[in-house]
Amino acid sequence: MLSCGLLTACYHSYDKSEWINILTVKMKDWGYLNLFVIANITGSKNFISHAAYQSYLTDIWMGNIHASTPTWKLLLYIVPPLPIFLSFNARFTNKDGTMKRLDSTEQDNAPKFSSRERLELYYTSPVIKFFLNTITYLIFLAVFMANLLDSGKKKNEESIGFSDIYTIVFVISTFPVELAQILAKHTKSVKKKFAKHFKKV
């Protein structure tokens, strides 16, 4: 509860970039982890539900896209080159790799994004990656269901069609993603990484 009280004081007394730095600064005594990661590992619900923590999560989720952008607009602009007409936040990367949102004065003086940079910022933001992955998965389910429905008609056919190849490639492509998620866990032992992953399955 003390940590939440301190975070509340910082949240109301300091600039956003300053209390975000408090959340993201890496501490040597804690294995170079920051408060953001430690709260996630320990499952501290009170700390995670704090307005400051949630605000930073929103920043990460939206990437450089304005947090006030409605979901329908994000989906509508998913077809290129429409993303170039969206509004983006100017940011710069700190030396430790963390992202800092510029304040209003810095935003005005920051260089404008080119069309290529706008497209890159849009399609690399976590929220758009999530939408694209969801759409891709729904297409996979539709193709897979179509294959099941047509399987009775193709009992005597030995050739493999495009839909079969697409299904196989999609399933195989999920393995590197799962492996990356397992190895990204904050546990040194590889065995514990796998055990922790499959424990949640």
Q: What is the H-and-E element order?
A: HHHHHHEEHHHHH
- Count of alpha and pi helical runs: 11
**What helical percentage do the residues reach?**
55-70%
Derived from helix and strand composition plus strand pairing, the structural class reads mainly alpha
- State the low-pLDDT regions, or none: 93-97
Which sequence of strands runs across the widest sheet? 1-2
Shape: extended
Largest sheet: 2 strands, antiparallel
Q: For the terminal residues, how far apart are their CA atoms?
A: 31 Å
Instruction: Give the assembly state of these chains.
Output: single chain
Report what the structure shows.
By secondary structure, the chain is mostly helical. It has eleven helices and two strands, in the order ααααααββααααα. Strands 1-2 form a two-stranded antiparallel ribbon. Helix 9 crosses helix 10. The longest helix is centred in the C-terminal third of the chain and has 25 residues, at 126-150.
Per-chain topology:
Layout: H1 2-13, H2 16-24, H3 35-42, H4 45-48, H5 51-62, H6 71-76, E1 91-93, E2 99-101, H7 104-109, H8 115-123, H9 126-150, H10 162-183, H11 190-199
Antiparallel strand pairs: 1-2
Helix pairs in contact: 9-10
Quick rundown:
By secondary structure, the chain is an all-alpha fold. The chain is built from eleven helices and two strands; from the N terminus they run ααααααββααααα.
Key words describing this protein structure:
201 residues, extended
